[in-house]
Amino acid sequence: MTIxxxxxxxxxxxxxxxxxxxxxxxxxxxxxxxxxxxxxLDRVNIVxxxxxxxxxxxxxxxxxxxxxxxxxxxxxxxxAFTRFNVxxxxxxxxxxxxxxxxxxxxxxxxxxxxxxxxxENIVAACAPCNLRKANRVPWDIKMxxxxxxxxxxxxxxxxNGRAFPPNHLHQSWLDYLYWxxxxxx
Length: 185
Hints:
Layout: E1 12-15, E2 29-30, H1 32-40, E3 44-55, E4 60-69, H2 83-89, E5 103-107, E6 122-126, H3 127-133, H4 138-141, H5 154-161
Parallel strand pairs: 1-4
Antiparallel strand pairs: 1-2, 3-4, 5-6
Keywords: Endonuclease, Hydrolase, Nuclease
GO molecular function: endonuclease activity; nucleic acid binding; zinc ion binding
Protein name: 5-methylcytosine-specific restriction endonuclease McrA
């Protein structure tokens, strides 16, 4: 899975006051309009600019490519239990067969058998595996998740998010991101 970012849209990478991205997945990006508004409201510092300049009747300004918040935003300690975060924890692949297509989620212990909708009982599953497993328990059908479901930390999700970089990384962002990509001079 790739996050699509158009370089022509000139998005600004948003860093916390400690110069770390607010999030890695989705990557913390603002539209150029939101970045300019935050600059005008004195909420951010401009760290780096694009070559693109905007013009108004009263001033010209280069579009910011990287901004940092003036006030530190404390990151959440516990991620929200959402479908997206379950998929991110499971790296957007079926925990039964490894497919990345037609993902849904599965109760490892079905609700009909007392299973609950919790981090520890939900896994990403492709529709065919979910249909095959139906409302049976893993040991009855010999379908066990490749990774046992667990309650991830925000750090776990950020680490997994780094494996799915956007299709466009502006050169000015690279000093603030920790992607596993080769940096070319």
